[in-house]
């Protein structure tokens, strides 16, 4: 049973990381693409949606693995099964249990408002960091020597780009600074 718990815990960490990434991407698209204000409820709904998708996926995997195991064990000549096939029967049972437990763990996270809120806050910080890095890189590329003859002609366009990106970045950083918790638990 301890092996299953370890596998489920690791699977949950991977799943939560995938959910955080999906929420982070939604935050970035919302802020920069849609010019939407940050709405923690919207992103909590995104997180729950992703968690429910992963739950259903694991439930489907558990059913499929159960069916495979049932098919293999229904063989009329189970005594004729190879050692590998006997091992497969054991592994399929383990896989089914892991998928079932992981589905339960994902649903538990989706039902816990505090865990979802922490997940969203971490996604928000990741989005803020990613946008900040992109802005820094962009600003370095936009840096032009004021002695350049085209400096004045390009100044207005550079200023506008800077303002749009910088304002979005400041908003994300402000929102991220309001809560510094670093764990989903």
UniProtKB/TrEMBL annotation:
Keywords: Coiled coil. It comes from the Bacteria. Residues 44-71 form a coiled coil. This is Asparagine synthase. It comes from Cryobacterium sandaracinum.
